[in-house]
Amino acid sequence: MTSAISVSHLNKTYASGFVALKDINLEIRHGEIFALLGPNGAGKTTLIGIICGIVNPTSGSVTVNGHDIIANYRAARSLIGLVPQELSTDMFSSPWTTTSFSRGLFGRPPNPAYLQKVLSELSLWDRKDNKIATLSGGMKRRLMIAKALSHEPRILFLDEPTAGVDVELRKGMWEMVRTLRQSGVTIILTTHYIEEAEQMADRIGVINKGELILVEEKAELMRKLGKKQLTLELREPIAAIPPELAKHKLTLADDGAKLVYTYDTRAERTGITSLIDDLQAAGVRFKDLSTTESSLEDIFVGLVRQQQ
Q1: In order of start, what are the domains of the chain with their CATH numbers?
Q2: Are 103 and 180 in contact (CB under 8 A)?
Q3: What is the pLDDT of residue 95?
Q4: pLDDT band at residue 154, thresholds of 50, 70 and 90?
Q5: CA distances from 211 to 42, 64, 86, 103 (A)
Q6: How far apart are CA 273 and CA 250, in angstroms?
Q7: Residue of 42 and 304 predicted with greater confidence
Q8: Exposure string over 18-51, b if 16+ CB within 10 A, otherwise e
Q9: What is the pTM of this model?
Q10: Cα-atom radius of gyration of the chain, to the nearest Å?
Q11: pLDDT digits over 276-307, tens only?
């Protein structure tokens, strides 16, 4: 089956000599939510720009539903809705005029009922005839989503879609994203809110310095790279870890008041029982313990640091 998006050996070097993308290979499946994570300047927006036909690649190829983005630009672009980071629309127009015009640009026949549904789901229907300049920042952000959905695309790019949107509206937007996915729309998002990617995405891609570091199923990524930590709150602070506990690779925290033990949940033995036995033998007593598990943010930060 043809992928929703297929990227092969994609490179982008700007006229200044800056290398934005280096040999990117990526397959995005139909109907999935794919989160692309990376620090500022990593190449996320350049990659999206190339797929959407806004930026020209230096070399390599991209197809959208089997349509080459250069040879079959119209067919490829008509399948894509893009919500860019920057707000770009006529501030003296209205939400209704903007979405209607955008739909017409893609050659779609008028469908007032569909546009009403989109604007209503984004809490914009009661402001449909207001000048865009009078809308709040969050409303303008939601209007960009409505504009991207106006021509009923099968692939939706969300480039930092919740920047400047309050928590309640953010939740509403993600509910709409889930509904779109259920209807078969493929969604690619970039976000600085890594907890959103952890909650929403089926697969995660991490890009840094123009290179795609990894692409992995979210659950598998958490399983493979996630660590658990056992924190022991000591009865009495210690100045240093006793030599007989060295094999456990413990770290001291809170000025010697806590010991932290990191272990792999996939290992046949966690080593916790052995650790507690050795603590008792070394005369180190603890009064409480707690466990924490790596978040996607911990994993992401670790991956980026490894590449520096």
Answers
A1: 5-223 (3.40.50.300), 226-307 (3.30.70)
A2: no
A3: 95
A4: very high
A5: 8, 21, 24, 35
A6: 14
A7: 42
A8: eebbbebebebeeebbbbbbbeeebbbbbbbbbb
A9: 0.74
A10: 24
A11: 888 988 989 888 888 776 666 666 666 666 66
Amino acid at 126: D
Distance separating alpha carbons of residues 81 and 177, to the nearest angstrom: 13
Q: In whole angstroms, what is the distance from residue 221 CA to residue 245 CA?
A: 31
Quick one: how far is CA 300 from the chain centroid? 11
3-state class (DSSP) for residue 20? strand
Exposed, middle or buried by CB within 10 Å (0-12, 13-18, 19+), for 288? exposed
**Comparison of pLDDT for 175 and 95, the residue scoring more:** 95
- For residue 165 the two structure tokens come to 């949107």
Size of the chain in residues:
308
pLDDT at site 303: 66
What residue type is assigned to position 70 of the chain?
I
**Whole-number Cα distances in Å, 99 to 2, 75, 90, 112, 205:** 30, 20, 11, 10, 31
Is 97 a residue whose pLDDT tops 70?
Answer: yes
Tokens describing residue 100: 């209607």
Amino acid found at 279: L
80-103 average pLDDT score: 88
pLDDT band at 77 (very low <50, low <70, confident <90, very high): very high
Task: Let me know: does 280 contact 273? Beta carbons within 8 Å.
Answer: no
Residue 53, amino acid? G
* Choice among 47-51, 73-77, 111-115, 287-291 with the minimum mean pLDDT: 287-291
pLDDT value at residue 69: 95
∠ CA(58), CA(63), CA(64), 5° rounding? 130
DSSP 97: H
**Adjacency order of strands within the sheet including 33-37:** 80-83, 155-159, 186-190, 33-37, 203-208, 211-217
Tell the residue number behind the tokens 């001291």, with chain if given. 252
